[in-house]
Amino acid sequence: EPEVTQTPSHQVTQMGQEVILRCVPISNHLYFYWYRQILGQKVEFLVSFYNNEISEKSEIFDDQFSVERPDGSNFTLKIRSTKLEDSAMYFCASSGGPQPYNEQFFGPGTRLTVL
Amino acid sequence: AQTVTQSQPEMSVQEAETVTLSCTYDTSENNYYLFWYKQPPSRQMILVIRQEAYKQQNATENRFSVNFQKAAKSFSLKISDSQLGDTAMYFCAFMKHQGAQKLVFGQGTRLTINP
Hints:
The complex is a heterodimer. Chain A is mainly beta. Helices cover 0% and strands 50% of the residues of chain A. In chain A, strands 2, 4, 5, 6, 9, 10 and 11 form a seven-stranded mixed β-sheet that branches. Classes of the chains: A mainly beta, B mainly beta. At the A-B interface, strand 4, strand 5 and strand 10 of A face strand 5, strand 6, strand 10 and strand 11 of B.
């Protein structure tokens, strides 16, 4: 069964460094999402992406964040200059069609630790 | 803004018992979707069941069923004949019918099924 995959599973970085979190959505999916979960808190929406552009973003998704679909298979989240409060689990998701009619399939997450 | 609240951080039942997980939400929308997602240990979130707010009939998927009370803004998940494989974190989530593509999650309930 097709799955969303994410790499790396755990990333440790120093404050101020740039990180890129990678996701491979399910191959025929067109809609892509990033969520994050700070330890002990709710899963929060960051951004949705369709047709090579951001379709919605939350207040969390400020200028330090960017997303890209550099080729036909990867979907990346870049944090330009990491802060301690960016430490969280980051989940990628994809869906085959528009919401809410199509299920979002989630990846296993990347745990980002900012020191 | 929509909020989702799960008031039970942890629950534990014996195998084969029935368990009900609670979820309440707040919204001014009239049409929306509600979801229960399951996240087994070290695995990705998967959709368990979904409910469309305009449908009065409660959704059912095999051993999983919901009790949707629109006026009370309540959406509980019942797991019948619980199995060891049901051990997971369960998230209740909300999505508007139109416009937004994001899922709004509750805090999660950690469910343990004991042998």
